[in-house]
């Protein structure tokens, strides 16, 4: 199985807590998009695309509406993007954390606490990300690779890879064309259900951890997941 299948398998693990995190993540993205322009998707393309991604990831309409309403009522609230990188306790294990925050000092303090409690170490900018590839990742129940490649060509999408496993197709594209790729797929397969539709950092190489190293890395991920400012966490440990 290829590394993109591993991405799909991990992303498809759905629990109530995971869904709540997804809702929170897309709520913030919608909030930021709405505040950076008009809070009307018909007049704000960034907001329109953020809503489309949220819906594709099964975010309920009422969650989307609350995020837009919050943007309208919280004129003084401002979020900024930040990326942090670090190393797990196990040899070769790495992690990338993307955040949306309204208080950078609070965010970095919370992240340092996560790393300290899991005996891990934060790194400087670029110390980890060079080993990852920035990709637009799409997973759908579909198996016709030829039809998909033709749709991507017609849509002038920079297609990086297509992989089919167990009835699911993983399509990876230039990350800046994720929304365009979705439009091409919607045209090819109306009403398709997206299992994954997101921009993510994918590790070029993975490692396996054992024993205490594995337990500590899992603890790091759990602690990071509890930080409200954390939007996405990417890592290179294949047996989690």
CATH topology of the largest domain: Alpha-Beta Plaits
Question: Poorly predicted ranges (pLDDT <50, ≥5 residues)?
Answer: none
Strands, total number: 8
Strand order of the largest sheet: 3-1-2-8
Major pleated sheet: 4 strands, antiparallel
Q: What is the top-level CATH class of the largest domain?
A: Alpha Beta
Please characterize this protein's 3D structure.
The protein is an alpha+beta fold. The protein folds into three domains: 3-73, Integrase, N-terminal zinc-binding domain (Arc Repressor Mutant, subunit A, Orthogonal Bundle); 80-130 and 204-235, Alpha-Beta Plaits (2-Layer Sandwich), CATH 3.30.70.980; 133-203, Alpha-Beta Plaits (2-Layer Sandwich). Helices cover 43% and strands 23% of the residues. The protein is built from eight helices and eight strands. Strands 3-1-2-8 form a four-stranded antiparallel β-sheet. Helix 2 packs parallel to helix 4, helix 5 (104-117) runs antiparallel to helix 8 (211-225) and helix 6 crosses helix 7. The longest helix is centred in the N-terminal third of the chain and has 20 residues, at 16-35. The chain starts with a helix and ends in a 5-residue tail after the last strand. The model has no long low-confidence stretch (mean pLDDT 89).
């Amino acid at each position: 199985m290829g590394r993109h299948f591993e991405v799909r398998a991990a992303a498809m693990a759905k629990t109530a807590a995971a869904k709540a995190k997804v809702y929170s993540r897309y709520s913030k993205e919608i909030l930021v998009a709405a505040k950076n322009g008009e809070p009307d998707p018909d007049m704000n393309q960034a907001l329109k695309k953020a809503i489309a991604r949220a819906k594709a990831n099964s975010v309920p309409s009422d969650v989307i509406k609350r995020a837009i309403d919050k943007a309208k009522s919280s004129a003084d609230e401002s979020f900024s993007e930040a990326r942090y990188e670090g190393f797990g306790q196990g040899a070769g294990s790495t992690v990338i954390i993307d955040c949306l925050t309204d208080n950078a000092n609070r965010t970095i303090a919370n992240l340092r606490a996560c790393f300290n409690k899991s005996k891990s170490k934060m790194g400087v900018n670029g110390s980890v990300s060079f080993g990852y590839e920035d990709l637009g990742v799409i997973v759908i129940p579909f198996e016709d690779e030829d039809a998909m490649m033709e749709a991507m060509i017609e849509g002038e999408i920079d297609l990086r890879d297509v992989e089919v496993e167990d009835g699911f197709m993983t399509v990876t594209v230039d990350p800046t064309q994720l929304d365009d790729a979705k439009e091409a797929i919607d045209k090819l397969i109306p009403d398709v259900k997206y299992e994954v539709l997101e921009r993510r950092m994918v590790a070029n190489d993975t490692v396996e951890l054992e024993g205490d190293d594995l337990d500590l890395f899992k603890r790091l991920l759990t602690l990071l997941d509890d930080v409200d400012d954390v939007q996405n966490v990417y890592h290179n440990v294949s047996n989690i």
